[in-house]
């Protein structure tokens, strides 16, 4: 009976964690470049149940032999193993602001490969799909969190407060004749990125990051005066939240039933 309590409790904890992930997605439905998190549910290892019995080996019962018979397997619960961002392209939204930049995916040679803008945060080099850029008081191109946008050499981009034209391959063409290429990084497996917060990711030790322009088979398009929106599906998220709530509620009822049964076993059967 206690195994059932543990199983129901693990189900409640898993759905609570799933609800937190979905709530965070819902809160970022209007965040530029946000990628929705997906909770990966996993079952605890199944246990094989057996019945054990002893049989006499002789007529006088002087010896016994123990035998076992398989009954079946029992699952010991579920848990949220990890949350993985979904890097599917979000819808483009035109803003008309010249510093806003949208990155449109083309072709990538790897199934989980993705292209990102490269920025410099306090923790080091990071990657983002949020192209809501602006020019700070010192003339540097920054994102909406104040992090420097980097060029292909890993340097902060100094605009000298000049306007520029952005080509489809990510080249910034200034009126004074300077050409600066936006730093575009290609991550072979985006699932190996670590979420830093503030809509940026850092590369884990296993992640392979390279210049997107130098990778064979990688194509993309840069759009000036637009931003990529969040890829959160509002309707699906609301439906998933309701499903998680109902599943939590069912596990709660199972726990209540087990609790009532244990109460009867202690308070009523125990009196006999």
Automatic annotation (TrEMBL):
<keyword id="KW-0966">Cell projection</keyword>
<protein>
    <submittedName>
        <fullName>Flagellar basal-body rod protein FlgG</fullName>
    </submittedName>
</protein>
<dbReference type="InterPro" id="IPR001444">
    <property type="entry name" value="Flag_bb_rod_N"/>
</dbReference>
<keyword id="KW-0282">Flagellum</keyword>
<dbReference type="InterPro" id="IPR020013">
    <property type="entry name" value="Flagellar_FlgE/F/G"/>
</dbReference>
<dbReference type="InterPro" id="IPR053967">
    <property type="entry name" value="LlgE_F_G-like_D1"/>
</dbReference>
<feature type="domain" description="Flagellar basal-body/hook protein C-terminal">
    <location>
        <begin position="223"/>
        <end position="267"/>
    </location>
</feature>
<dbReference type="Pfam" id="PF22692">
    <property type="entry name" value="LlgE_F_G_D1"/>
</dbReference>
<feature type="domain" description="Flagellar hook protein FlgE/F/G-like D1">
    <location>
        <begin position="112"/>
        <end position="172"/>
    </location>
</feature>
<dbReference type="InterPro" id="IPR037925">
    <property type="entry name" value="FlgE/F/G-like"/>
</dbReference>
<dbReference type="GO" id="GO:0071978">
    <property type="term" value="P:bacterial-type flagellum-dependent swarming motility"/>
</dbReference>
<keyword id="KW-0975">Bacterial flagellum</keyword>
<comment type="similarity">
    <text>Belongs to the flagella basal body rod proteins family.</text>
</comment>
<dbReference type="InterPro" id="IPR010930">
    <property type="entry name" value="Flg_bb/hook_C_dom"/>
</dbReference>
<dbReference type="Pfam" id="PF06429">
    <property type="entry name" value="Flg_bbr_C"/>
</dbReference>
<feature type="domain" description="Flagellar basal body rod protein N-terminal">
    <location>
        <begin position="5"/>
        <end position="35"/>
    </location>
</feature>
<dbReference type="GO" id="GO:0009425">
    <property type="term" value="C:bacterial-type flagellum basal body"/>
</dbReference>
<keyword id="KW-0969">Cilium</keyword>
<dbReference type="Pfam" id="PF00460">
    <property type="entry name" value="Flg_bb_rod"/>
</dbReference>
<dbReference type="InterPro" id="IPR019776">
    <property type="entry name" value="Flagellar_basal_body_rod_CS"/>
</dbReference>
